[in-house]
Design brief:
This protein has a single domain, classed as Spore Coat Polysaccharide Biosynthesis Protein SpsA, Chain A (Alpha-Beta Complex), CATH 3.90.550.10. Helix content is 38%, strand content 16%. It is built from nine helices and seven strands; from the N terminus they run βααβαβαβαββαβααα. Strands 3-2-1-4-6-5-7 form a seven-stranded mixed sheet, sandwiched between helices. A hairpin with a 6-residue loop joins strand 5 and strand 6. The radius of gyration is 16 Å and the shape is globular.
Length: 219
């Protein structure tokens, strides 16, 4: 079932990307990268994620839900739309808020939640995932560990109903979302929470912001 606008053209995606204030982001990276570099890496990951997402032809726009003024300014400069985290009640509330803002403007939007920590993201791989999720009202992609979720998509007229955090793969399955299983989309699965994750992303090939920032890491 391909969701379109009634004239045969597939509805382009709006991606909603939540981002904690940089001072609290990526706490598990501090051991590997150092406390001073940790917020810089969090911002670099987000900049590379958004840059790749905006380069994907299936994506119309990217909405960042954040209250961090520096991150908001830098991400707006690369083309993202910034929405304040009005609920300030955690990850899933931020995603629901971003979804509501998007659909208040465009009720027929196709919306996908995307992690902000995918520094190796490749536009072509994201396009493959977004093409696959079109076959379902709600669908998701698990992270590289097979425990969490990096992308959750909802077709026009379907609520996103995010259940991110920790073992979210199992929660999204229980909620009725369909798991997308594709090979060759590792860059969409490779989120970064630890030094080991960062090493794996670097091995895949990260974007320019992460490459430059990680060069300063003691890890």
């Amino acid at each position: 079932m391909d969701h379109d606008d009634g004239a045969g053209a597939a509805v382009p995606w709006t991606l909603v990307v939540p981002l904690k204030p940089l001072g609290r982001a990526k706490s598990r990276l501090a051991a590997a990268a150092g406390e001073d570099l940790r917020p810089e890496l969090a911002l670099a990951f987000a900049l590379d994620t958004v840059g790749a997402a905006l380069a994907c032809p299936a994506v119309e726009d990217v909405v960042i839900v954040t209250d961090d003024p520096r991150a908001g300014a830098e991400l707006a400069a690369v083309g993202a739309r910034i929405v304040p985290d009005a609920p300030a009640a955690g990850l899933n509330a931020a995603l629901e808020h971003g979804e509501a803002v998007v659909r208040a403007r465009r009720p027929g939007a196709a919306v996908a939640a995307l992690n902000a920590d995918l520094p190796a993201l490749r536009p072509a791989e994201l396009a493959r995932v977004l093409a696959a999720v079109r076959a379902h009202p709600r669908a998701f992609l698990a992270d590289a560990a097979g425990v969490g979720t990096t992308l959750l998509a909802a077709a026009p007229g379907t609520a996103l109903a995010p259940a991110f955090g920790g073992a979210s793969r199992a929660r999204h399955l229980r909620s009725g979302a369909v798991e997308i299983t594709l090979s060759g989309v590792e860059s969409v699965r490779r989120d970064v929470d630890t030094g080991e994750d960062l090493a794996a992303a670097l091995a895949l090939g990260v974007g320019p912001h992460t490459l430059r920032t990680s060069a300063a890491s003691p890890a």
